[in-house]
Amino acid sequence: LYNSVLIGYPRGIEIANANTMAAANNDSSHVRYNSWFGIKGTWLNFAGGTPPSGMTTAWVANANFQNSRSSTSDVQLINPFATNNSIDPTPLQTSPVINTASFARQGIVPIDNPYFTIVPYRGAFAPGERWDLPWAEYDPVNREYRAVSPIRLLTPAGGEKYLVGQSVDVKWDTARTSGLTLKLQFATSKTGPWNDIAGLTAIQDAGATRGTVKWTVPATVTKTGYLRLVNVNNENQVSVNDAPFEIIEPPKPVARLLSPGGTAGETYRPGTSVDIRWDTTATFRQRWKFQFGQSATGPWTDLAGATSVIDSAARRGVFVGGFRVPAIRTTSGYLRMVNLADTSLNDVCDNPFTIVQPEASRADSVLRTPVTGRVQLSNTKIYSVDGYVFVDNGGV
Fold this sequence. Notes:
The protein is built from one helix and 29 strands. The protein is mostly beta strands. Strands 9, 11, 12, 13, 15, 16 and 17 form a seven-stranded mixed sheet that branches. Strands 19, 21, 22, 23, 25, 26 and 27 form a seven-stranded mixed sheet that branches. It has a three-stranded parallel sheet with strand order 1-3-5, with no helix packed on it.
């Protein structure tokens, strides 16, 4: 025992067992350069045996050992006896312990080894030095001390916003969890009550679930969501996210047909292909069908090739050429989009469009037989073909 400050021990120091006493007497056990304050009885006590011949309780006071004994008030530490975090064991500048340390070797103990940091003071602290803060805790009366759990939940950490039905990666620190069997629980309060999550009550911290597992967010809308990770074989070992997360309803899909019929006065000819466009608010990967009618209320006819359109990738909000204009003359054409999962979610274009069907042209001449000679056509006339007409050998 070297360069230490001991206060509040009424009996000073005790050497128990005859072998320990013999070691001290033979100088293979050292007590050097120490300061005792506030001893009420003897400085050295023997217990559990008889000391060697010639060894007395004055052994500790050997002048070569440079130990000292004084009253409690002489130690001059700032506040050494507090039983809470106001404790301050650092010495005042006038304390007798600040310049009385020694690292001079006496006997077999290599106190002068460069491994030791040589300081001028006895005890743990120099004046104004608090290397014990902030990690040390000095309030055992009010503080609850528990063994550190090997389980530490990393994600969620708090502050996240999750959608109902969303798949979330739950993660934990794997430093001390290898091979453990874990379970995951959910609550809307940090103190529970806790509900086991189906399918996640026997998670092996190994392989694909080493430090992570998928969790599907429940249909519980809350601003105070918590997860708890529990060691199945020791349910005192738990970890809960520090701050709450939110669970919110996903936005509902919007049925909003933008075109055709987005503006008034649109006109189309039969046979032309028209792009269908719609609002993409919350519609990703929703399936739709598109229909044509001659009234805003129907009846409706499904468009060929447009009865199961997935709002994704190249068809995200647009179906290029999806409306092949029918050969129907009308001034009140409408398109309707219908959600396949929820047919009540539908929309009709805002404005009617017109489909024009030109009058049939009257031919000036009719070609009915193969062309075998020279035939001159005029660019001012309309010709029609009746039957199988071709240019035969010799025909021009």
